[in-house]
Specification:
With about 280 residues, this protein is α+β, with helices and mostly antiparallel strands. The chain is built from ten helices and eleven strands.
Length: about 280
């Protein structure tokens, strides 16, 4: 098994974007895409408010009881069509420094919103929980849930394919900091935690109801078409080493305010990762 990597600082470009975003959990976004709000206390107050309302039925619970409570809470959502995902991602992943662009997940680069499609040089809709892991495709539900759908370069998205997540591998061409081998993909350090929290959100949100499979993380790779994805121990490590930053928090807020009206609880409460798993 590959030796776990030591956490490294986030790249300067993303750090600068986070500074531009205001380093808060905003309730709105400015026209330029920079998050509104100022003091870190505002972020704490916002999370506290959600504890008193949105998360009130989950507080004090652990293990399966916490997972069940969170499932009930976040399952109350507005569902998008797959076509609507294009427009949603142009808002949720808008570059804080350039409102005409989106930030791509694995490469970290800024690309024009208009360059969406399936050709080389375009960006498309990456299913972080690979849609073949459970065979849910792009049907409204897990296949269109923007908590785990992100903009990504077409070529890099193809390289990731439906691989599980794990440490190790060779460099990914055109995506510095990302590694891959025959059965796994390791994203760049700046989004390792983001990837982990998206996967764990999906495992809580989709538990076999609504005609969709029961999605669960496990501690293996090469899961194929099973409704499982790994490697859980590595995902937990990534979540701990790369806590939510301003971009991820803002994205969660925009999804809640403007689109699905539900939240990723592991962004608001990263400590719940260990409580559930």
């Amino acid at each position: 098994m590959p030796v776990p990597r030591v956490h490294r600082w986030k790249p300067l470009a993303l750090t600068a974007a986070a500074l531009l975003a205001g380093l808060t959990v905003p309730t709105t976004a400015t026209a330029s895409g920079a998050a509104s709000g100022s003091a870190s206390g505002s972020a704490s107050a916002a999370v506290g408010a959600y504890d008193d309302t949105y998360y009130k039925d989950a507080l004090g619970k652990t293990g399966p009881e916490l997972k069940s409570a969170l499932h009930t809470i976040i399952s109350d959502q507005t569902k998008l069509s797959y076509d609507k995902v294009w427009d949603a991602l142009k808002t949720t992943d808008q570059d804080p420094a350039n409102s005409s662009n989106v930030i791509l997940l694995y490469t970290g680069t800024s690309r024009s919103k208009s360059s969406s499609g399936g050709d080389q040089g375009d960006w498309n809709r990456e299913h972080v929980w690979a849609k073949s892991h459970g065979d849910f495709g792009t049907a409204t539900g897990p296949g269109t849930d923007i908590h785990h759908l992100r903009p990504e370069d077409v070529t890099v998205n193809s390289i990731r394919g439906n691989k599980d997540f794990d440490n190790g591998g060779g460099a990914v061409a055109g995506a510095p900091g990302n590694l891959t081998d025959g059965d796994s993909f390791e994203p760049r350090d700046a989004v390792k935690g983001d990837v982990a929290r998206m996967i764990l959100y999906m495992a809580v949100r989709y538990d076999g109801e609504d005609g969709f499979p029961d999605l669960e993380p496990n501690d293996r790779v090469d899961n194929g078409s099973a409704p499982a994805i790994g490697r859980l121990s590595v995902l937990k490590q990534w979540s701990a080493e790369d806590p939510p930053d301003a971009f991820e928090k803002n994205r969660n807020q925009v999804i809640f305010d403007k689109f699905q009206h539900n939240r990723n609880p592991f962004i608001d409460h990263p400590e719940w990762v260990e409580e559930v798993w």
